[in-house]
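User: quick one, fold this
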Amino acid sequence: MSYILLKCMSLLSAASVFIMWTGVSLFIIGFTYSIMKNIWILLRTSADIKKLPLMDYGLNTILIDDNSICTAFTAGVLKPRIYISKGLLNSLSRDEIKAVFLHELHHKKSHDPLKFFLSSVIKDIFFYVQIVKYLVTVFHTIRENAADKNVVSITGKPIELASAIL
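Assistant:
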């Protein structure tokens, strides 16, 4: 009887070592993949932004000098900048432009590009844990809602923000 118990204990010990090394291996694979993927995305995004016709007035807000592009975003992990296109400015009312700018300014002041980058790294490291992907999506939604709430609290005009988003 004790022989069977020792055999079972030895199998459980071997199984736990195997599971531990499998977990460590998955973490290392996820970490390596995540770093490579997210650095590649940062470099590609930076290169894509540099291709745009930009006008920098030194205020950390860059105008994309193109009427065919309608976009506004905040980019830059360590030194975030706001990018707004001329096409967007021409297609929105003054109050809608203010709402969009305040939304992006909130992202800039809150360092959301860095937070989004780090959350993406965590999501990729733990690719095998499904709830992490869900939690990252919830986190992104919370950050977007916080920027929207900030705009409404400053302007008191939720319709302008909604109109600009649409």
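User: anything notable?
Assistant: The beta strands are 54-56, 61-64, 72-75, 81-85.
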